[in-house]
Amino acid sequence: MKTLGKYSFGLGDRFGHQGSAQLKAIIAASEKNIDITPVWNKSNREHTTIGTQPVDVRIEADSVTKNAGFNKPYFVDADHINLDTVDRFIECSDFFTIDVASYIGKKSDEEDILKFLSGVEKYTGELKIAGTKLSFKTSISQIRQIAEKYLFSSIRARVIYRKIEKVKGKGNFVTEISMDEITQPQTPVELFFILRMLAYENIPVQTIAPKFSGRFNKGVDYVGDPLLFAREFESDLLVIDFAVKEFGLPKNLKLSIHSGSDKFAIYPHICSIIKKYDKGIHLKTAGTTWLEEVIGLAESGGEALDFVKEIYIKSLEKIEELCSPYADVIEIKVSSLPSKFEVSDWNSNKFSDTLKHIPGNSDYNPNMRQLMHVAYKLAALQMKDFIRLLEANEQTVSNCVYENIYNRHICRLFDI
Ligand SMILES: [Zn+2]
After folding, report:
1. What is the rounded distance in angstroms from the CA atom of residue 329 to the CA atom of residue 40?
2. In principle, which of 112, 129, 276, 286 could form an S-S bond with 134, CB 3.0–4.6 Å?
3. What is the distance in A from the centroid of ligand 1 to the CA of 180?
4. Among 14-23, 73-82, 323-332, 373-382, whose mean pLDDT is lowest?
5. Distance of alpha carbon 206 from its chain centroid, rounded?
6. What is residue 238's three-state secondary structure?
7. Alpha carbon of residue 58 to chain centroid
8. CB of 229 within 8 A of CB of 214?
9. DSSP state letter for 223
10. In angstroms, what is the span from residue 76 Cα to ligand 1's centroid?
11. What is the phi/psi pair of residue 176, to 5°?
């Protein structure tokens, strides 16, 4: 049975050059007694934009772990797949993030809803989370609403899961269910009944990514009230603990945080809550690595600096096209973006300080950072030059990637 470790990190590496630097951060954490399972993830959207194949991620993960003599488990995640996109991921992946967000809100047959409701009668009235002080009021009409909103997506999840299972065989892969790419967060009560549905569909879910309150914009800090997030996160965690026992779900089932990179404001809360209850976490960081490649090239100066300046200037011209696929997960104040004339004069330090996520640094500009986050497509259009510059400045770039994952993410999240 493929089992995901207690702590795991989703590592995105869009251009496939930073696997070693990322793994170095994982190894550094294990030297501090924090064992993190690396999971290389790349979504269908990223493959399409860059023109890579899912198998490329497998080749990279296998080679960097082998070169480093890393003999602990690691995974390759088919990130955000659905029934239409899963096929080409099946063979080379052993972790599947089944994305059901687009099915949420579609109503399933009345017959299915009635069947579900008849099985959850004992949770009506008041839902007490055993062993905790948590309890929720749960009327039958409220549970019906939840079923009308989520039952169809759990049935779709089963169809996708079975498709994968048929090829790979039971127990040979890790299953995550993601519901994060929608606007409305799920409440802890909804999460409880969603888990009931997934258990009923016999999906051995090991991680679940709900939509939390607040905004998880790409590459920048959490936007919202961290204390509100902390309360919600703690309730979700207790609900999962109870649901695991109640429904016989995998014991290691844990929360997954998507767009989890750079959410420094909530890391201390996540850290104290998972420690308090001795629970695991899966944190997905993807585009933050591409941003470090840009920062590393900026720091390298010369042609490399000119190259990333040019990407930024082009991104200003193509801002709408670049931002539209990410509309729900970025918030850019266009008036706060530096103009192409300003940026043309910048030296290495000014460019990298503007992009580097150091809260409190007066040069740091989250608007420019978000725009660069979605501008990776422009690097893909000049792939030859981009890769040549990455390789020519490998030491500087991989240092940036390592520092970012280890110091800014792992150390903060685990309070090292
Ligand atoms: Zn996601």
Report:
1. 21
2. 129
3. 6
4. 323-332
5. 15
6. helix
7. 18
8. yes
9. B
10. 15
11. -115, 145
DSSP per-residue string spanning 348-403: HHHHHHHHS--TT-TT--HHHHHHHHTTHHHHHHTHHHHHHHHHHTHHHHHHHHHH
Output the CA 103–ligand 1 centroid distance in Å.
15
* pLDDT score of 197: 98
Q: What is the pLDDT of residues 299-341, one digit of tens each?
A: 999 999 999 999 999 999 999 999 998 888 899 999 999 999 9
Confidence band, pLDDT 50/70/90 cuts, at residue 181: confident
| Residue type at 158 in one-letter notation | R
What is the b/e burial string over 184-203, where b = at least 16 CB atoms within 10 angstroms of the residue's CB?
Answer: ebbbbbbbbbbbbbbbbbeb
Around Cβ 131, how many Cβ atoms within 10 Å?
10
The arithmetic mean of pLDDT across residues 15-37, rounded, is 97
Cα gap 327→312, rounded to integer Å: 19
CA distance 240 to 269: 18
Question: Cβ(206)–Cβ(250) under 8 Å?
Answer: yes
Find all residues with CB under 8 Å of 238, minimum gap 6, and list them: 129, 132, 134, 188, 277
Ligand 1 geometric centre to CA of 166 (Å): 25
Domain segments of the chain as ranges: 7-101+168-286, 290-393
Question: Residue 359 is encoded by which pair of tokens?
Answer: 């809260």
Amino acid type, 67:
N
| Residue 211 confidence (pLDDT) above 90 | yes
Encoding tokens for residue 302?
């010369």
Q: Please state which CATH number belongs to domain 7-101+168-286.
A: 3.20.20.70
pLDDT (0 to 100) of residue 287: 84
- Residue 102 carries which DSSP code? G
In this structure, how many other beta carbons lie within 10 angstroms of the beta carbon of residue 2?
Answer: 14
pTM: 0.96
In contact, 291 and 401? CB cutoff 8 Å: no
The per-residue pLDDT for range 269-283, each reduced to its tens digit, is 999 999 999 999 999
CA 67 remoteness from chain centre: 26
Distance CA 10, CA 366 (A): 22
Centroid of ligand 1 to alpha carbon of 259 (angstroms): 6
In three-state secondary structure terms, 234 is helix
Identify the three-state secondary structure at position 67: helix
Question: In the predicted model, is pLDDT for residue 157 greater than 90?
Answer: yes
